[in-house]
Each structure stands twice: as structure tokens, then as C-alpha cells.
Specification:
Elements: E1 5-7, H1 9-23, E2 30-36, E3 46-47, E4 50-53, H2 54-57, H3 70-83, E5 85-93, H4 103-107, E6 117-121, E7 135-140, E8 143-147, H5 150-155, E9 156-158, H6 166-174, H7 177-185
Parallel strand pairs: 1-3, 1-9, 5-6
Antiparallel strand pairs: 2-4, 2-5, 6-7, 7-8
Length: 186
Amino acid sequence: MTARLTIEPKLFTALVTGLAERGQGRRESGAFLLTDRAHPEDQLPQPVTRIAFYDDLDPHCLTGRIDFHAVGYTALQNLCRRGELRVAGDIHTHPTDRVQQSRIDAEHPMVARDGHVALIAPRFAAEVTDVSQIGVHVLADAGWTSFYGDRAAEVVLIDTRTGRSTSWWRRLLARLPIWHRHQETR
């Protein structure tokens, strides 16, 4: 399978840390993985450039499970329009080590579109350090193909190139609510 998404290490860390904090070890949480609209949609892998946590878009969606409402999709659409972004994938957490899709996950994806990448992090994202711990599920032709372990890490790559400056990262992460919370506690 060709790599579908890339994500830089610091953004991946902010993502899993944010999921764990929002789930508080007792409820599922999730986020949309966004890429710049200027990046051709058919050019793989798609670089994840921004995260939109579900509860930032729909403040009442984390109920133990995820109940994402129309208000959240409207907020997502507005965010994408303003930021010239598009959804490349999503991630949500499960309470156990199970990273396979549930029947509900498979039948009711957050985005029901071919090429969509749905990730599932175990244990409410606590102690997730790399993609090989996450289930990666790709939608195509109305069906899912799933990847685990080393195969998952081949489909979603942690981009370790060092060509970007620290100031670029600070500007990007400053836009994420999780970054602000960490800065205030230091």
C-alpha cells in the first residue's frame, strides 16, 4: 500500500497528547487530520498540516463515546474554507488495546469518501508513541482496508525530515489549543 498521510513528529505528539487529555482516561476523543487544499488531492502522501479536535468543533460531542453533530460539521467546513484546508483523515480513541474498527466505526465513518483514512488509537491514546500502535483504515470502493503494526506505519508516515525551522513549528502549534495549555503550565 502506498503511504496515504505524512505527519511531522511534533504534530503527531500534539495530536496524541491532545486526544489523551481530552479523553481524560475515561471517554473516547477524536480529531480531524487536515491538509492544505493547495496540495493536489491525488498526490500521495497527503501531508497533515493541522488538527481539528472534535470537541473544539462540537463542544458537546464527547459523551463517553463520540456523538458528533451537524454543528461540528458546519464548524469544520468553515474552518476548512477559511484556512484553505481539506480533511485528509480522522482519528479517534478506543478504551482498550483494540484498534480494529467496530461495526459502528465501519458503517458510520466521519467522512464517507474513497481515500479517507480513519485511525484508531488504543487506551484513550495514553502512551501512544508511534503509528505502529494505531489501527489505520482506508476507505475505498465502499469497503475498508485495515493496517496494523509496521504496515500501519507504512501507510501513515511520521515525517522526520529536518528541513523546517523551529519557528515554523511554533507558529503551527500556537494555533492548536493543546499547545496553549502546555505553554501556560510551564
